[in-house]
């Protein structure tokens, strides 16, 4: 295949096509579920009806004019790339960011890759004795992230498509209020958008993880929980009461000395998570909560938020 031509027709840099070509090689892919089964699977993945309708409208039927040969090649190789790292826990970008304004096949391209891998990761879970309840709760982060992307008018998905590769490789598990990320040494914590982060809910999730990972991954030995997040920025203490859920979450951690993070603009991440927008001017953002007012006032004062890392013993 001519990588330059493929990249041009996909509207992406050639080095990103070359990366998929090199990493996927001749590795086996995985087939999409039957179209007739897809609506029930999308429902299990908590995909909203409006997003599900678009996904079905762009379905890669054999005779679909929406799917060019280059797009079909990329779907096959991106699926192979992610599936080849089943059980891996590092960040993995499944493929290039596509021009999503070309229609539903392009807009939801990586959804199709994850749908193809759903049975693969379910099998991986079963092999580790993990029940369907945890599996579907974990994978339902797909629907949650699609809904966020819709709220953000398409600004969220480029980050989320790589994030979701963790779920479909068996690296992340949602146990109650928190998501737990397997690693080399620590068990990483992520905080999904799923309701209040009360101390009781956090403690229950940590207790669940303490039982879950020795049972299902007995060869992995974790001694600490860890987290990297703007939620751990000590500057939040200037604005939030000491008994707030965020501050009580911070209190669990011993923070590492601050270092400027590579590849993360924390001001952008705070706006992404607190307001779910990256383009609205500060003066037009809502000020309904203490946190929203804190974020706006801090930035308008010319200050910046920090991405901080911390850990505490299991």
Anisotropy-based shape: globular
Please indicate the percent range of residues in DSSP E strands (runs of 2 or more): 5-15%
The strand order across the widest sheet is: 1-2-3-4-6-5
Runs in which pLDDT lies below 50 for 5 or more consecutive residues are none
**Radius of gyration, Cα only, in angstroms?**
20 Å
Protein name: Acyltransferase
Domain GNAT-like C-terminal: 178-312
Domain N-acyltransferase N-terminal: 37-170
Pfam family, one: NAT_N
Q: Would you write up a description of this structure?
A:
A six-stranded mixed β-sheet has the order 1-2-3-4-6-5. The relative contact order is 0.09. The mean pLDDT is 95. α11 (199-216) links the parallel β3 and β4. It has two domains: 1-170, no CATH class; 173-314, 3-Layer(aba) Sandwich (Aminopeptidase), CATH 3.40.630.120. The protein is an alpha+beta fold. α1 packs across α2 (14-24), α2 (14-24) crosses α5 and α9 packs antiparallel against α10. It has helices at 3-10, 14-24, 38-44, 49-57, 69-83, 104-107, 109-127, 132-139, 141-151, 157-167, 199-216, 245-250, 266-275, 290-300; strands at residues 172-175, 178-181, 187-190, 224-229, 254-255, 308-313.
């Amino acid at each position: 295949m001519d990588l330059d031509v493929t990249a041009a027709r996909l509207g992406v840099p050639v080095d990103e096509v070359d990366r998929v070509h090199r990493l996927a090689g001749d590795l086996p892919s995985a087939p999409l579920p039957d179209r007739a089964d897809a609506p029930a699977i999308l429902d299990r993945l908590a995909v909203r009806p409006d997003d599900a309708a678009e996904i079905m409208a762009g379905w890669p039927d054999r005779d679909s004019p929406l799917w060019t040969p280059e797009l079909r090649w990329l779907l096959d190789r991106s699926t192979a790339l992610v599936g080849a790292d089943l059980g891996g826990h590092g960040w993995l970008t499944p493929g290039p960011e596509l021009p999503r304004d070309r229609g539903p096949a392009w807009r939801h391209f990586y959804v199709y890759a994850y749908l193809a891998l759903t049975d693969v990761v379910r099998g991986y879970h079963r092999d580790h004795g993990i029940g369907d309840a945890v599996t579907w709760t974990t994978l339902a982060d797909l629907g949650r992230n699609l809904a966020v992307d819709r709220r953000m008018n398409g600004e969220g998905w480029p980050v989320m498509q790589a994030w979701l590769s963790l779920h479909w490789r068996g690296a992340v598990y949602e146990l109650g209020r928190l998501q737990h990320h397997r690693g080399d040494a620590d068990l990483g914590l992520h905080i999904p958008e799923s309701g209040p982060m009360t101390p009781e809910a956090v403690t229950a999730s940590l207790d669940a993880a303490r039982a879950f990972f020795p049972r299902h991954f007995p060869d992995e030995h974790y001694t600490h929980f860890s987290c990297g997040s703007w939620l751990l920025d000590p500057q939040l203490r200037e604005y939030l009461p000491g008994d707030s859920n965020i501050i009580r979450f911070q209190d669990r951690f011993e923070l590492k000395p601050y270092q400027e993070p590579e590849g993360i603009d924390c001001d952008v991440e705070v706006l992404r998570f607190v307001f779910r927008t990256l383009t609205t001017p500060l003066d037009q953002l809502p000020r309904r909560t203490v946190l929203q007012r804190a974020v706006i006032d801090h930035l308008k004062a010319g200050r910046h938020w920090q991405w901080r890392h911390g850990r505490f013993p299991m």
